[in-house]
Structure formats: structure tokens, C-alpha cells
Amino acid sequence: MVEDEKQLADSLKRGLEEEGHVVEVMHDGEKAELQGIVSDYDVVVLDWRLPNRSGKEILEHWRSEDRNFPVLMLTALGDTEHKVSGLDAGADDYMSKPFSFEELLARVRALGRRTAEINDTETISLGPIELNSRKHKLNICGIQRSLRPKEFTLLELLLKEPEAVFSKTQIAERAWGSA
Predict the structure, then answer these.
(1) Strands (DSSP E) along 8-147, which ranges?
(2) What is the pLDDT of residue 134?
(3) How many Å apart are CA 8 and CA 1, to the nearest integer?
């Protein structure tokens, strides 16, 4: 999430995490632009008006670098001209402030489903372990178990890159987000 209003960003982060999402928040346009080049995201919620770079400029740069993760622009600029400009810049969806959190959550879920379908990552398998990304279910040797959001995030990280060695910091950032 790239949002310069810290109180709004904190509130959205809490709400999204309560729904099982891992949320990384950035408040600065330049930092967000660089992170989007080096990191893969399932969904990005991007404000238009940001310090050091506009959301539209960031999005145009990401798209020019073939960064194709879904982007939802969430901004106070709700007129038709800005909506069209944001969508033409590469946004997958556009919401104007003020907004309903339930609607934002539904749109994030919809964009996340598209990402899962594109990446075909509904089930990750390694030996007898199967992890269903959509249902957050674990199946080991035919025994099925539901996972809590943090458990799921950690296991998914390890299964996607079984040969990788992760530091405590990398694991903490993935499961609990950046400080």
C-alpha cells in the first residue's frame, strides 16, 4: 500500500491484516517506485498524490518496466478525467475517497483472484505437502488442516522457494510486514 496519509494507511493496514493479508506500507513515492521494481506484489493499493512522485508517474514507470501486478488506485481525485488517466496509465481499478472499507476489501480480493489465476498458484506442492492458496488449507498425506494467516504466509514462503535460505528479518518482513 502506498499512502501518504499515515492515519489512513495504518487503519487500512490493520483492516486488511485482520482479513489475512500481509501489508507493506510506504508513504513516499520514490521509495514505492523502487520497491515496485524489485518486489513482486499480489495487489498494490496506490494513492495518486504522494511526496516525491505521483502515483500516476509511479504506475507508468512500473508498467514500462513490465511490472504487471494488479494496481488499485485509491485517491481523492474522483473526477472522470483523473479516473480515465489513472486507468490509461495502467491501473486495474480505481476508487475515490471517501470510500467503503468493505468495497475496498472486495476489490482487493477480486484483484487477488485475478493474480492467482494468472500465476496458477492455487495449489503449491512439495513432496506430501499441498498448500491451497485460495482456501488457506494445508494437506499432508491426506490430512487436511486450516491455517492461521501468519502460518499460511510462512509456509507459503518456504514452499515457493524450498532451496532458499531466509534470514529472520526476511521472514519477519514477509509475515508481519516492514517496520
Answers:
(1) 44-46, 71-75, 93-96, 123-126, 129-132, 137-140, 143-146
(2) 66
(3) 11
Half-sphere exposure of 57 (CA within 13 A, CB side): 13
The answer to whether residues 68 and 15 belong to one domain is yes
Average pLDDT over residues 38-49: 91
Query: Residue 73 forms beta bridges with which residues?
Result: 46, 94
pLDDT in the model for residue 148: 78
Looking at the DSSP assignment, which residues form a beta bridge with residue 143? 140
152: domain CATH number is: 1.10.10.10
> Helix (H, G, I), strand (E, B), or coil: what is residue 178?
coil
Whether residue 71 is found in the same domain as residue 146: no
Coil, strand or helix at 55: helix
Residue 85 in domain: yes
Q: Are 26 and 52 in contact (CB under 8 A)?
A: no
Which residues does 129 contact at the CB level (< 8 Å), separation at least 6? Answer: 138, 139, 140, 159
167 plus 129 within the same structural domain: yes
Among residues of the chain, what percentage have pLDDT more than 70? 93
169 Cβ partners below 8 Å, 6+ apart?
Answer: none
Task: Give the Cα separation of 179 and 173 in Å (integer).
Answer: 8
